[in-house]
Amino acid sequence: MLLCRTRDVDQTRALAGAIAALVGVGDLLVLVGDLGAGKTHFTQGFARARGVAEPVTSPTFTLANRYVGDLVINHLDAYRVEELGEAEDLAIPELLEDGVTLIEWGDRILPALPGDRLEVKITLGDDDDERQILLSSMGRSWTSRSGALSAAVGPWLVA
Ligand SMILES: Nc1ncnc2c1ncn2[C@@H]1O[C@H](COP(=O)(O)OP(=O)(O)OP(=O)(O)O)[C@@H](O)[C@H]1O
Ligand SMILES: [Mg+2]
User: Fold this and answer.
1) 142 alpha carbon to ligand 2 midpoint, in Å?
2) What total of structural domains would you count in the chain?
3) What is the pTM of this model?
4) Quick one: which of 4, 84, 103, 108 has the fewest CB in 10 Å?
5) Is 3 strand, coil or helix?
């Protein structure tokens, strides 16, 4: 696990952009954290870093948005997914094949998700604009990248 700290939104976007440089088609990031933690802003930085020019907005009401940068980025929000049956309606296996997938509130539907994933847990820090970001690599595909991941987020690592 890697514990990072960002001091404002731009740092969260930059950290997400650094992680985005490590991903490819089939990768999954599960974004965990309370309302207003910064999951959508993280996704904005991530998508921008992969060449998405259009604004990235919260998929809370649409459940899933699809962006095309230098790879496809699927952005989902499971906040309103009440049952795992609904999670199956999101057609996650198909989305995963299509590009890289980020799921806000993904912890609500973990049983519907594959074991290979990066968990990004965002919590509030001491100051209003501070966030703690805990990265947990799950499964071989992410643990094999843990060296690259820790180098990428080096500027924000909490010693
Ligand atoms: N360091 C920071 N990183 C990210 N967001 C921050 C930070 N500091 C302050 N903020 C603010 O926190 C809020 C994060 O909102 P955002 O929509 O990204 O949260 P969210 O986790 O997606 O919430 P929701 O569960 O409602 O979708 C924004 O208002 C943003 O300006
Ligand atoms: Mg959000």
Assistant:
1) 23
2) 1
3) 0.97
4) 84
5) strand
